């Protein structure tokens, strides 16, 4: 059992753990030149079992975060979205994780598809993004450089990097995208002048 030092925790002051720790501290001070005096009086203690676990807390309300599981049939039945303006591209996507539809915080994710001779116009957003290519072939342009991608490729796209997706004839690209935001609607796409696939 680990004894941790906490300041200004009146609840633990005078507990058996404080007495044990101070006894050990006094025993050790004979061989270590530590200064105790006022420092000793400011210590209070808690055990590891008493320490709250932060890894399961939600950032918004403090309530315990629950895992989210979505099976294949649920994903298959999710509605597809598309850009209202064709100049932005003819990519379609399904939002998998995004508040308030899913009780997830800190990340959102979805599946995107680029059809043959299709494109997602060059754009940027403040948040970094991850692409994991599920299947197909195509290219992803990032800050003026084109990268050929295929199933199994992964890309990390820095925040504010100008990027887009392009497929040539006979190519279709499917990928998973992930953002470090709880809500997909908080991702603000800033589009450049649209260009189509050069492949």
From TrEMBL:
GO molecular function terms attached to this record: lyase activity; metal ion binding
Family matches, as SUPFAM superfamilies: RmlC-like cupins
Domain Cupin type-2: 112-179
Keywords per UniProt: Lyase, Metal-binding
PANTHER family: CUPIN TYPE-2 DOMAIN-CONTAINING PROTEIN, OXALATE-BINDING PROTEIN
Name of the protein this chain belongs to: Dimethlysulfonioproprionate lyase DddW
Organism: Colletotrichum siamense
Originating gene: dddW
């Amino acid at each position: 059992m680990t004894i941790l030092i906490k300041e200004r925790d009146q609840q633990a002051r005078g507990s058996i753990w404080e007495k044990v720790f101070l006894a050990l501290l006094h025993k050790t001070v004979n061989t270590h030149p530590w200064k105790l005096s006022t420092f000793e009086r400011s210590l209070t203690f808690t055990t590891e079992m008493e320490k709250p676990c932060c890894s399961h807390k939600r950032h918004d309300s403090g309530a315990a975060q629950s895992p989210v599981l979505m099976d294949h049939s649920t994903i298959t039945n999710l509605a597809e979205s598309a850009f209202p303006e064709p100049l932005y591209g003819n990519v379609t996507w399904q939002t998998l994780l995004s508040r308030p539809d899913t009780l997830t915080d800190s990340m959102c994710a979805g599946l995107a598809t680029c059809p043959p001779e299709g494109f997602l116009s060059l754009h940027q957003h403040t948040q970094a993004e991850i692409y994991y290519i599920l299947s197909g072939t195509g290219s992803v342009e990032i800050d003026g450089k084109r990268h050929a991608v295929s199933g199994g490729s992964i890309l990390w796209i820095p925040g504010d990097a100008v990027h887009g997706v392009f497929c040539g004839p006979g190519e279709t690209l499917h990928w998973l995208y992930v953002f470090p935001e709880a809500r997909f609607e908080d991702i603000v796409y800033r589009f450049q002048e649209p260009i189509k696939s050069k492949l």
